Amino acid sequence: MTQNERITFRLMAFLGMLAALAPLATDMYLPALPIMHESFPVETSVIQMTLTATMVGMAIGQIFAGPFSDMLGRKNPLIIGMTIFMLASIGCVFANSIEMFLAFRFLQGLFGSVGIIVARSVARDVSDGATLTKVFSMLMLVNGLAPILAPVVGGQILAFTTWHGVFVLLGIIGLALLISAIGFSETLPKSRRMKDIISSFESFPYLLRDKYFLGHCLLQCFAFGAFFGYIAGSSFLFQDIYGVSAQTYSFIFGGLGIIIMIFGTFPIRFAGKIPDVLMLGAALTQALIGASALLTCILTHAHIVATIISLVILVPPISVIGATSFSLALRGHGNLAGAASALVGFSSTILGAIVTPLVGIAGAMDARPMGIIILVGEIFAIAVFIGLIYARHKRGYQISQAQTQN
Questions:
Q1: Backbone torsion region of residue 254, taken as left when φ is above 0, otherwise alpha when ψ lies between -120 and 50, otherwise beta
Q2: What distance in Å separates the CA atoms of residue 276 and residue 388, rounded to the nearest whole number?
Q3: What is the structure's pLDDT at 397?
């Protein structure tokens, strides 16, 4: 059986749901952020730290999930991860203090990250080259349903119950993924596994010495840091500054999610026809233009329509950036798919965890920190792309076929 023959619709749907855990755990909860003060009377920046706790957990969890999945295979770590993710979601429902809530949110991210890593690692297990780009793009496409549906569902839950209902639903999703994980077929044979966890961790310095791989880690760090700035600040921007309802905000957020999903089809359509590096560069350029437009709208107190248009330019390229950059980064490290996925995944999450509380540092009625953080992130992302990634392709850099087949 060839690699590509192992890719089925059922597998893609399962991997897509695993990869969607991050937006499910964050986006479904977004409409509830401005009303969390009713349960936890703390500052806006502390409320936003409930997103930070999840992202810090995801960042740390990926560092460990990758090596463990390289050593133990994909299935067993996935079962453990989904079990604890489900229990942590239920724990959020019963949290009676902000400290307890933050702890359970951290556990959600820590063990939910196993699903994210396994999804990417399995994709590398069963595909390579242009096919790998298509698989990552399809993951982003399936994953794109999460930011469309999650805030809409979250907003509608708030229409008839409290924010606790959001975490009941996340617990049910965790249970469904646990059941699916039990029936999942292992994709990493024992002959290809790392002998011990230390050997897997020792692969980190080797990977980071590859400047091209490091470039993708840094690019993901800055691009997704900017994206999480949007995630953390958008509900306050629209609900507090523009005064829309939680339900209306959820539809705005969901509409942007539809455009993200449409953009996610581009790498599927053009993989093998247009070089991945050119698609990546075009997406980064568009995101930078959108970030500049958004900050301008914030500083000039522009009409809500202008702000939405700037976000339509800024946000959707993230699906192309994610698919092409992940594919290019992992393409030369098939024998270390788990560890490579861990480092890229950590990079794409950690800055978001740092900037999330900073977005609200000036209060719920001031979006300037959000606009500045997003623009700075996009500037650094495109600078890394030019200096460490595109420059090497321009000099004729290619991932060797031998590496690609590892």
A1: alpha
A2: 15
A3: 58
Token digits of residue 312: 């339509």
User: What are the pLDDT digits (tens) for 113-142?
Assistant: 898 888 878 877 777 666 766 776 677 666
The low-confidence residues of the chain, meaning pLDDT below 70, are 1-8, 128-130, 132-133, 136-137, 140-148, 332-335, 337, 395-406
Q: Which CATH class is domain 8-404?
A: mainly alpha
- Reading phi first (left if > 0) and then psi (alpha if -120 to 50, else beta), residue 271 is in beta
Which residues are within 8 A (CB) of 6 and not within 5 positions of it... i.e. 6 or more apart?
Answer: 126, 187
The SS3 call for residue 155 is helix
- Residue that is written with structure tokens 């951290």 in the block: 106
Residues 6+ apart with CB under 8 A from 367: 233, 236, 237, 241, 298
Structure tokens at 244: 């829309």
Q: Please report, for the chain, the start and end positions of each structural domain, with discontinuous segments joined by +.
A: 8-404
The DSSP call for residue 185 is P
How is 174-234 classified by DSSP, letter by letter? HHHHHHHHHTPPP-S-GGGS-SSHHHHHHHHHHHHH-HHHHHHHHHHHHHHHHHHHHHHHH
Two tokens, residue 191: 């002959």
Cβ contacts of residue 323 below 8 Å, gap of 6+?
133, 136, 137, 139, 140, 264, 267
Q: How far is CA 101 from CA 151, 169, 307, 362, in A?
A: 20, 16, 33, 24
Nearest CA-CA partner of 117 in 181, 69, 188, 180: 69
Among 198, 207, 232, which Cα is nearest to 347's? 207
Q: Are 311 and 387 in contact (CB under 8 A)?
A: no
- Does pTM top 0.90 for this prediction? no
Tokens of 245: 């309802």
Structure tokens at 138: 């399809």
Task: Output the furthest CA–CA distance in the chain (Å, rounded).
Answer: 60
Cα–Cα distance, 249 to 237 (Å, whole number): 10
Dihedral angle over CA of 270, 273, 274, 280, nearest 10: 50
Spatial contact of 65 and 342, defined as CB atoms under 8 Å apart: yes
